[in-house]
């Protein structure tokens, strides 16, 4: 057992930390931050900075321009990136692109990789992942998928509705989950410019960190050629797990950084601001909130590191990533909520970045499986036994 | 002991409920709802509706155009008004005007009442309450007041900075808390058009329900005549309690309605949306959240009713209103947070009104005394003994 | 709406409070308090005190020697009784006798009342309620009832196993829930001395407040005459509700008193004991616990009073009593747990009465329906709609 | 970073697990388990088993008969030992002996080690640690120490009162914290048979796992020779930290095992017991409790492992051990409380071992620094900055 980081990783951590502090934090009040995320001009500027720093798409293999980091290394780096709401965009490791690149690298054909992964990894284009559907379609329960693909010669014709499609507006390519009539789910790739893809509207949401916001997308007789099937037909749900188990964890990593930021802002305030005769933080009622933040950040980081290490052993780690997701999304939410409280009136305004992190993070307990679905999965594994717990790992 | 409502109150409750449902809810998506609250045109339209329904300024005495409700009656009516974010504006019982009218009616001179209370009660003008200051001034600790008033002949000259001044933009009149050099706090009235009042900027905040938003205000040599002193010089902090104890409670009442709305929206969703083979609400994980909402709403309502009844006995009820404030602001927050969770993705978007209630309500645990300050006050009373608890009341 | 108590009730409250303080608290360290509850000698002494004070069996009608209190009056008196672990025994209002008397008065025949209710109300005998069964029988789910009654001429023959039978050891009479083969549940009365009733063993439990402890009981060919059917055959589950809805609430009342006691002991300690330069209670970390106790006690009391008032309106109040049960059992547990924490080392020893209250109260979240079953019932009512909530009551 | 265990450690873990299951669990209902802990006969039998298994005093160096485990190895082994309330006694790693041996090995003279450490490590004798005092002495605040040592020739004369002295009854040796008049604290060693040591009484407590229970001890003119000073005079508080930082952590390790046991018992019950048409665990309300247990156990284990690793780096780790203590004592308490709830009625009786673990564990949030004191220490370090958090470790 060893909790130390290699010198290389410690160095990388320091570099990213400095990069975020020096290059990215100053852009947080840039007016190109819109209610639907940083706009394309801002995104391009951020990506240029990340590229210049040699930190772009670090989770992608060097072959496609990344740093080829393993999961543990990502845990270190992504936390640092998440320290600013703009950090993951600047390093090209924001959702959903980060997970989409991971999936493409894992299962796409060489042609598909050249066409889509390479420009994605370069930050030249963006992508979206079209899975979630409005009622009565697939929400927390993917088995309720309603989007239909029908074979027509050497093409597939796709019809259906999706929503909460993060980054749809402005994306160049979509990964689409659809099913054959009564058949299993399959993933397809499609250029967003294809006839038959309609972005009906943008959804107004609490969060403002994702470029392109969240869209409602309709497929009306969308035709995709056979070579655009992603992986094997019928394996859609399995691939969703290939994407989700690590994607879930990278969310945890980034939000850990964001919560640490909120805690740091709150701590600085608690040191500086006085009330009732002493610094706020000297009041136990406030000091205890900071201590609870410290503990929540600590155990979250450990749960993330552990899960990352498990994934690095080459297993899918569904149990560990479920645990990391629930622990992280709930503990980090408490951290940010307490940070708001410590800040008092300033906490609920945009005088600091904390209100933004607060609004951005609420969805974390919901997407990639709400806490309730993960708790249920964890419970089922416990009940099934033998024990799922990694007691020796 | 009797928990029943009089027939008159039951009838009033039904009228307000229908008014909100029929007249106000349909306006919730009106584009005149801005990030800094409903604009003046929308406010005027809402007030006109409230006036037509005969429900305007119900807490003000009939002499000034209100219904003269006691605290218990307000508990019933304000909950109904709070069911829509626009309801309190429509009934002219939104903060800070509601508390300001209460204070003016309690301590203003006849001339002051004619000049400001009457048009306020008619919804013709708005007001603001200028107490909170940026560091190192008065925040949670009012004793840190920095705004200075100096007598100059038969005028006072006021200098200082205020922020989080709700409704400052567009207000016609301000109640200003200031102190004489080393002396006690005093309240002053001033027309917002007076030379020497500068609204420096609007503060961007999570909430969007208060007309005029929240402003940063500077007093630069503001001159107010002696007759604009509100009440007695030196009694500012005492009057703040006269205003705050009931104002704290009316916040609880309105937010109770808002949380009930969130719960109703979540319940409807849990009945209708299916996942994993049954309605969401049939899953215990979701059903338990609805049950917890029900219990939190119930005990909050009881704590509010009890405190309102105590205030109706003619006492200040500082202990009871502190308890009601902490219980309400924390329990109702849990209700709204759970409602977001039940709604899943829709909960964090503006597909329903719940995300708006969520963003509006976070500040409730902070203003009018953060939970930490109230807990400390409650603790001091317990330690001082004899028991503060109203065991027989 | 009125939260005041009548002068009669205020007087009764004061009398019981003084009685408990003067007569009962001094007996708390009596060695006749055994791990299985106060023994019969101590119980007889306590009952004698209660009788002398004219406070015995206050929930029973005067016809049978009680005071005929309504539910609201019981809420006041039972809270005072619960202030000592021995108080409910002294006033003959402890579970299960209290609920059994209530049930007998509601549905027993005149002959049954004379035979069993009269001596029960006089404290001359004790009773038990035989419903819960070991697996695979009836636990939280009463429908799993396994105890069988078969008609044999003008007698019934009962066979089955029960456990967690509070007060079985030393009880004179049992109310037995059994069912006909595939038929509905029926209640029977039987003298505990009847052949065919075997008390297999006492169960060692955390609590030590119930006379007779908790027993495992077996019925082996127990023969009861037809006149011992309690109420109508086949109505057993309905009667269980008749018993449980108020019995659940009287538990809440008594434990409210116990939790108030724990809070008072903790408060006295927090005033007296010093650490780090000031009284414990002056530390916010401790003061906040006391404030949270105060709030939990307050809302619990309101929820109990409300439910009592609802029952006094003549309705069964299943929804309200479920809510009161969950709110009380969870809030009061928090109070007692915090009181232990405030007391530090003394909290986990029998230096004060708090450790005993702690051990006694843990079962409260489990018996008469665990929190989980009540949450589920509450959820079902919410989902079924129209709203179950007593908004105007 | 590496979460794997060495083959040696995995093997040791398996051996201890089997030993506890086969040799110790069967003794849990032995009547020699008294309210004041396992009696001396049972302790001797348990120690004999531990010795035979070659697992005795594993934290002590081989020189004195132990296995010389580092902190990480202890984390693995002590968790397994804690799986039974009797396990730590059998392996001679129970508090307070375990911490006392650690302290003696760290700072005692060779003569002191031969005289007391050697027989302690062999399980031949027991020891106690006399620090905590009744009011107005040292409780959570060690600076309030009242026990006085006065030099008299080449002896010290000690007078004072101590309580909560775990294991005092039956101990052969005491470590005594006392101070010179107005001077710093010093540690002394004394045979418990010395004239001048009076065990006034045993304290009845909720827990029953510590041999000898908890005693009230008085020193009346106790004379100890100079060679019985432990370490340097005036360094008592520093040595207390040397003892406490790891002793705190070994508590966490043992209780982790205990909580895992409770969870396992609850899980088995949830698999087997049915209600409302399916296994208890199939109800989300129960399954979620098991999932929360799993997560609490997981993050607790990680926090313990991390802190153990930090201590193995040779630092005192006060911050990390404070965090591990608060996280563990609160998370493991939740686990045990939920396990009781899952078990229903059986949870509050001694039908299973869970009620015993529940009663044993409540004190864990209090001793070795209550949560409130640790939160305050953590807060002070955060406020002092630079960040105390081990982000790269």
TrEMBL record, chains A, B, C, D:
Signal peptide: none annotated. Residues 234-383 form the Acyl-CoA dehydrogenase/oxidase C-terminal domain. Residues 128-203 form the Acyl-CoA oxidase/dehydrogenase middle domain. One of its GO terms (biological process) is fatty acid beta-oxidation using acyl-CoA dehydrogenase. One of its GO terms (molecular function) is acyl-CoA dehydrogenase activity. One of its GO terms (cellular component) is cytoplasm. Its cofactor is FAD. InterPro entries: Acyl-CoA_dehydrogenase, Acyl-CoA_DH_CS, Acyl-CoA_Oxase/DH_mid-dom, Acyl-CoA_Oxase/DH_mid-dom_sf, AcylCo_DH-like_C, AcylCo_DH/oxidase_C, AcylCoA_DH/ox_N, AcylCoA_DH/ox_N_sf. Keywords: FAD, Flavoprotein, Oxidoreductase. Residues 7-123 form the Acyl-CoA dehydrogenase/oxidase N-terminal domain. It holds the Pfam family Acyl-CoA_dh_1. Belongs to the acyl-CoA dehydrogenase family. Homodimer. This is Acyl-CoA dehydrogenase.
